[in-house]
Sequence to fold (203 residues):
Amino acid sequence: MNRARVSIFPLAGALLLPGMELPLHIFEPRYRALIHDAMARDRRIGMIQPRGDGPRPALFDMGCLGHISHIEALEDGRFNIVLKGLARFRVIRELDVATAFRQIEADVEQAPEDEVLAAVERAAIEQESRRFAEALGYVVDWTAVSRLDDMSLVNGIAQVAPFDPAAKQTLLEADSLRERSERIIQLMQIVGRIERDGGATMQ
Fold:
């Protein structure tokens, strides 16, 4: 663990995982200030989900540190950025700061090693993903999916699947790729049942 001061972007439903990319459109003045500050320092910001609504909602305990790998400055002061996930962090405390954006003290984990699934685990998540995509009417290039390494497959699904913020948080907090894959399969089965029963999706 590495103790660090992290400037954060709280955003419900936005999941960033180590090694993955997250495109973001930045338009609020406080987050424009966050981007300006990050670009002047180390290009790093922390993505974290809020636990509620309001101007300063409570935060979940864990987020992911990201590096601004691409930035497009628009004429009216907005930004389009791409964040590359570096490592998870755990919030120690929120800092009392004068900046418009929030800052925390956090323990930042080491960047994760590459992980692989057993063949049967890989087959299980691919099979459940196909069922899930068909149930929700998604069009997927399965040939491209089959070429992804295990981490890109599991973490990519975790980021884009239409799960609610609390469910996405459980995926972030999974301590191994195998555990994250198992949780994704469980969530897909739950959402699939809701769809078949005519209820709302977990969005």
